[in-house]
Amino acid sequence: MKKPRVTGSYILGVPIFIWLLALVITPVILMFIMSFKLKEGYEVTKTFTLANYLLFAKNPIYWKVLLKTFRMSLTVSCCAILLSYPLAYFVSRKLKRFKELLFMLIIIPLWVSYLVRMIAWRTILGNRGLINSLLMAVGLINEPLKFFLYNQIAVIITLTYIAVPFVFIPLYTVLEKIPKNLIDAANDLGANEFRTFLHVILPISSPGLLTGFMLSFLIALGDYIIPQQLGGSRGMMFGNIIWSQFGFASNWPLGSVMGFALFFIASIILTLSQKFGYRQGTIE
Amino acid sequence: MEKELEIELRDITKVFGSVIAVNNANIKIKFGEFFSLLGPSGCGKTTTLRMIAGLEKPSKGRIFLFGKDVTDTPAFLREVNTVFQDYAIFPHMNVYENIYFPLKMRKIPKELAHPRIMNILNLVNMERFEERYSNQLSGGQRQRIALARALVNEPRALLLDEPLGALDFKLRIAMQNVLKDIQRRLSIAFVYVTHDQTEAITMSDRIAVMKDGIIHQIGTPEDIYNNPKTAFVASFIGEMNFLQGKVGNISSNNVEVSVSNHKILCKKIDSKIDRSEDVLVCVRPEKIHINPSNKMPNLIKSKINRVVFRGDDYEITTSFNDSSIRLVVGYTSWDKANKVGTEITIGWEDHDSIIYPLHMKDDIIKYA
Amino acid sequence: MYTILIYIFLYLPLFVVIIFSFSPSKTIYGMSGFTLNWYSKLFSDRGLLLSLLHSLEVSIISVCVAIIFGTFGAFFLVRVKFPGKGLFSTVCRLPLVLPGIIIGLALLILFINLNVRLSMLTILVGHVAFTTPVIMFQVASRLQRMGRSYEYAALDLGANIVKTFWYVILPMIKTAIIGGALLAFTISFDEIIITYFLTGTWTTLPVFIYGMLRFGLSPQVYAISSVVLMFSIFIIFFMARFTGTRGEEMGR
Questions:
Q1: Residue A135: domain span
Q2: Interchain pair B133, A190: CB under 8 A
């Protein structure tokens, strides 16, 4: 049987390669090139220089913020996992009747606007927001407490809120696929519920865990909108710094250096999670 | 409480919603016995096994293991292990770690565990497979690993849920011998679930035949084969001819039943039978002789309808009036001159005809 | 139990927004009544309505373009033999998985280099970048599951390539394309991170709302937010009905 020619030929690849070249490969390369240029006035020079890289490397503020962003992203991911895992475990394994419904209920916030969700948290945490209004109404405080907003915690909470559905989905997918007879076998061979979880469920669900962690980490790593709106100066993240290079300062080359640094970090994380995402003997 | 009883199920009933999966089962399994639960799909045999393992809780009744009431004991504390139908080998552990698992749960340290693991691998002929993962093993190999894993803890009894179902024919036969061999060597009770009656008959010391949650009969293979208590058991085990007729004279030795205007002499049964009652008459194909030389109580002239060559024998279908009977003739005994349409005489002993009440007709398992 | 708390955590903020949209006072300091005032004001806000229109334009057009690129890409990925499929797959996924700021930034630099001013076109290009993989992988996984046997059967029964595609393959991937398109539309409609980088004076709805935040939180913001919320939920249920969702297909 001759292979159908059209559905098997290389011509099919042309559109996607055009897309790849124009929208993915070229921009990244150009960004890389831009990082070596200098901005003078409104023009970008044609020379190549490492000046921006030196600027980036020497300035301690940039590194402090980058590290802080790392820490915060780590925190966000851990919180998101702590919230999502029990949920995913419960919905996928313990529930029979409302499983589909509850699953949808978790997905819905994911597709509700990111902006709206951010606004919601600003509302809750703000000076005239929910928490302060409630506390004042009840009479516990006389003036709004300022510490809820414009700091790291506010950013972390909001980012966790955004990340939870992203972590939930891969976890749920993996947990749902674990066949019941493996649990039976573990019980039969002497493991109680906790030990079954530790030795069987947790290891098998680790690819989902890793995927969720990675998604959540990347979301937090590059975000600039939430830190801008809720972070104040104490909650500033690396995304803010990049943004400001393209906004007010208009120092595109420097921004490209940072952008490329972020790209590099993100790529490493992606590669690592790909490698460790396919463990020997996982349930396919 | 008899000392020899390893496993006992007393008045065990299991209900799922509105379905009675197991209906008032009473089973006593002895030390070192190979005990099979046999029946068609959905008869409750797997549910029964799972209740012994502790993976299901009975709705009613008590379960005893080795003298102790374990009805409320969870699975991980019971001293029995299960070989599952699809093996349930942990995919994220290699063979060695899989077998180590039950020992690890017992907190047995690695140094002590290692020789036991190697021994059991030896027993199932799977040495040198320690590093492999489940997806690198064939069906038969996985089955042996599942067996090894269930045995390494030296359970006092082993439960097996259709372990050979997924294997091809020749491999299945080979594994039956392996299992029987291991069971004899270890001298522990095996509780074996299967829907394959040949398997049950060749391997078991005793069999419980089940249908729709009810145990029809418990007995040795010969017992069940020669004295099936119900029409279902008669039809499920081996091959059986089923005829219908009216009861005629009842004497002290036998019962006369009129089938298609022929009088057939049958074995007496225990339950009460009245004259003129409609009954089922059954006789096994291999008990029927063709053109017998000696005098037989049942002799019928019938016409050959079909001749099927089966390799080691011939299956002949004959009919008289509106009744049809199959019989089996050995290869060397068959006279090729007998073609379709030939009239022959068939005969059998009166104690080879078994009677059942007509209402059992619906229980008969018919395979087209 | 614990799970109930988490559901409350997930939904409470959204309810807060909805409730505050009905507050008559300009500040959110305590609710002193209930009014639909702010909603009616939305309809008279020309800037807002214009940006809403723009959002629809961008999302619809970019999804249409993405369908073309994505479907071809899916066929290429699943049906053609070539080395490095894993790498190809990963690179195609990048606009979805990488932090939006990187994509936005890189595309901005592309436009700087090409001397293109920020406008609808730039936003459109940005959206095509991430909507294409959404559709491509939806269709690809459907193609994978489908297998080639139907194509062979159709050819065996006398259909040529075009007919095979039209009568056999297309109907079977139709739901995957539509499902992917709806998904892509939702993501695109709400997108701000990449869009904000590529916006000049021509704005989409999220960018407009973000601009409103400069003046602080007001019930107007809540009103439009609530509307967007309701719209999103509506789309989700519509999607669920239509495609029969499964978790993996909706997750990125």
A1: 50-277
A2: no
Residue C219 falls within a domain, yes or no? yes
**Number of other CB atoms surrounding residue A264 within 10 Å:** 12
- In the listed set B234, B249, B283, which residue is the last one of a domain according to the structure? B234
Please check whether residue A198 touches B, CB under 8 A: no
User: Best residue in C15, C102, C188 to probe A by mutation, most A CBs within 10 Å?
Assistant: C102
Asked if C73 contacts C128 with a C-beta cutoff of 8 angstroms, the reply is no
The pLDDT tens digits for B316-368 are: 888 888 888 888 888 888 887 788 888 888 888 888 888 888 888 888 876 54
What range defines the domain where residue B345 resides? 235-363
Closest residue in chain A to residue C26, using alpha carbons only: A128
Interchain CB distance below 8 Å, A164 and C10: yes
Q: Of B71, B19, B80, B62, which Cα lies nearest the Cα of B44?
A: B19
| β-pairing verdict for B206-211 and B34-38 | parallel
Q: What is the pTM of this model?
A: 0.80
pLDDT confidence tier of residue B192, bands split at 50, 70 and 90: very high
The answer to whether B76 contacts A204, with C-beta atoms less than 8 Å apart, is no
Quote the minimal CA–CA distance from A179 to chain B in Å.
8
Which of B180, B209, B234 finishes a domain? Answer: B234
Q: Which residues of A touch C105 (CB under 8 A)?
A: 31, 242, 246, 255-256, 259
A229 is a domain residue: yes
Return d(Cα A29, Cα A33) in angstroms, integer: 6
Q: Which domain holds residue C150?
A: 47-245
Question: Is C157 among the domain residues?
Answer: yes
**Contact A181/B102, CB-based, under 8 Å?**
no
Q: In the β-sheet with B19-30, what is the strand arrangement from edge to edge?
A: B19-30, B5-16, B60-65, B68-69
> Which residue among A179, A189, A284 places its CB closest to the CB of B105?
A189
The torsion angle over the Cα atoms of residues B96, B49, B205 and B362, rounded to 10 degrees, is: -140
Cβ–Cβ below 8 Å for C109 and A34: yes
Residue A17 lies in a domain: no
Nearest CB to A187; choose among B55, B91, B133: B55
B298 and B204, same domain (yes or no): no
The verdict on B284 touching A (C-beta cutoff 8 Å) is: no
> Does A contact C via 3+ CB–CB distances below 8 Å?
yes
How far, rounded to the nearest angstrom, does the alpha carbon of residue B236 sit from its chain's CA centroid? 9
Q: For the domain that residue A259 is a member of, what is the CATH number?
A: 1.10.3720.10
Smallest Cβ–Cβ distance between A185 and the set B54, B88, B106 belongs to: B88
Task: Examine residue B12 and state whether it is found in any structural domain, yes or no.
Answer: yes
Which residues are within 8 A (CB) of B316 and not within 5 positions of it... i.e. 6 or more apart?
A: B290, B304, B306, B307, B308, B326, B327, B328, B329, B338
Domain-located, residue C231:
yes
- Whether B102 and chain A come into contact, CB under 8 Å, resolves to yes
- Does residue B215 form part of some domain? yes
Q: Which residues of A touch C96 (CB under 8 A)?
A: none
Number of H helices, E strands in chain A: 14, 2
Q: Count up the domains in chain A and report the number.
A: 1
CA-based Rg of chain B, rounded to a whole angstrom?
A: 25
Count of the separate structural domains present in chain B:
2
- B368 part of a folded domain: no
Identity of the residue in B93, B105, B134 whose CB atom sits nearest the CB atom of A190: B105
Pairing of β B313-320 and β B241-250: unpaired
CB contact (8 A) between residue A281 and residue B153: no
How many domains does chain C divide into? 1
Any idea which of A167-171, B174-178, C212-216 has the lowest mean pLDDT? Answer: C212-216
Interchain CB contact of A282 with B (< 8 Å): yes
Percentage of chain B lying above the pLDDT 90 cut: 48
Mean pLDDT for A43-61 is 77
Residue B200: closest CA among B3, B43, B7: B43
Residue C243 pLDDT: 57
